[in-house]
């Protein structure tokens, strides 16, 4: 079967994009999550370049690769028959734009024109570390859901992290609307296998929650992460998902910068993917972090991919 890949990406240093963000940052906002509008959430660390290198090596699946952006095109991207750039305006109504909330953007990925029924949603800070096939993301009953061993917290003090907050919100929504929730642990920050028709079904059944999420400019404490959390619980509760555990190695840029991670080579073949989450937030002194981050990623994927406009150089520009 055809399985497409969908990658959400933003260049937080782009002047036009920053002007839009600055304008909307001045609007009255309530109920923000901590660092919902922090620099680290939008900073372009060349993550996409290394994700695509990992996909060329390990993505043994037929299908297109869609990069979803806000009036931007990655500077290194080459023309490729399987690679397509999708603008937010192609999947979200104009009344929702611009948006700086990944939850709003992800809620509409199933509206990408010509998207296959089965697709895998990637964040750009993820890299594959072993060969993958459709069965890694889709089971006989439907979706594969990757969970951590960390229980979803219940106290407000433990819900300051976005991933904890999103998982808790989805669990409470499922309990309220369906009387049950099948996911009691934090989902992994990993690629997710999605059925387009099932997202359409969920949206048709609950259009209000999709509308509410798409109205976000920035992440709200009470908002829903539909694709990354709610959809997974909805599938599992309806018998449309199988559970697997700890498939992704999850790291922070702090780990890299402070030499708690000297190499990533030991993850090859052991994990489905690696995610290195930018935790520099609003810091401006990131040169040391970037230098070490580039070094360990280049050690892992030294060869430019066919998706890059200038092959033959192993260095990062």
From TrEMBL:
Domain Stealth protein CR1 conserved region: 1-23
A molecular function GO annotation: transferase activity, transferring phosphorus-containing groups
Protein's UniProt keywords contain Chloroplast: no
Transmembrane helix keyword on record: no
Pfam families in alphabetical order: Stealth_CR1 (PF17101), Stealth_CR2 (PF11380)
Domain (Stealth protein CR2 conserved region): residue spans on this chain: 41-142
GO biological process: polysaccharide biosynthetic process
Keywords of this entry: Exopolysaccharide synthesis, Transferase
Family assignment from sequence similarity: Belongs to the stealth family.
PANTHER family, per database record: N-ACETYLGLUCOSAMINE-1-PHOSPHOTRANSFERASE SUBUNITS ALPHA_BETA (PTHR24045:SF0), PTHR24045
Protein name (database record): Stealth protein CR1, conserved region 1
Lineage per the UniProt record: Bacteria, Pseudomonadati, Pseudomonadota, Gammaproteobacteria, Pseudomonadales
